[in-house]
Amino acid sequence: MSSAVGADPAVVGPYLASVLGDQRWREVTVDLIAAGMSNLTYVVTPAGGSADDAVILRRPPTGAVLATAHDMAREHRVISALGPTDVPVPRTLHLCTDTEVLGAPFYVMERVVGLHVVDALPDGYADEPAQRQLIGDGLVDVLADLHSVDPEAVGLGDFGRPEGFLARQVRRWTKQWDATRDVDRPHMDALAARLAETVPATQRSGVVHGDYRLDNCLLDPERPGGIRAVLDWEMSTLGDPLTDIGMLFVYWPEEGETRPVLSPVTTLPGFPTRREIAERYAQRSGLDLADLNWYVGYAFFKFAAIVAGIVARSAAGAMAGKDTSGYADRIDPCVELGRAALEDGAL
Description:
12% strand, 38% helix, 9 strands, alpha+beta, 5-stranded antiparallel β-sheet, two-stranded antiparallel sheet, 10 helices
């Protein structure tokens, strides 16, 4: 048995054997996946089994957290609800709300085989610019499909409070920043205040992912442009769909740009520009993107607040050995990009 902080295999194995009704799970190996800085994700493999037999277990970080940001029942619920739709998500297998088992709620889902692209495309995959264009288009189309889901029809009618969503989100992340601020950052405070003063009217509400980006998706290893699964639904709720586009832009540097805080993958020739993404999304969704600058400014503010939270949890020893060195240095550049979007119209 391997050792994994937060998911003791001596506990996980017998528990899965019981709830899944399969004794092959009685002995397991548990491996923490390195990617991700918030909820913890593990690969659980039965003794003698292969990668094809493995399942995925998700639980909150092992330290003190914002309860609403690490709600396993909500994450399990939205993935289960989206299962029958056009949005590609893993199949959920079990939700455990008994904190006596692992010290926190957790859920188990199928392991989807796909490419997880973080810092670089794998050698030999999407080598041609046209294939990279397909990846960008595929990500936009899946997001538009998500935003076309009728929450009531899939049992998510009470999954959030769409009324006043944007103003409430600005307050929420301002509160997060106030609770985790590492040093005095007056430009962060100014951005928060400006966002609160200029909240646009929401055109349409729907299911939002909350952190939609390339490395929160698994790509089809055989067909560039195919999306096997959208992951990391911990921030999902009902709200303004354009917040997802704003957040996608945070993670989407273009060819020739040198943003040190982001992955460089989308700078490769062929990936669509942010404006091309906006145009495709507008066409697919029918939404007006005239206020997109506000959403991009808000997304950079939210991202900066998230990073501040990671820095705080790391300082408290709650990141299970993850390397967070240099994270504090990302906050101010994000604040400036948010200000530039909001005040200068720089998408």
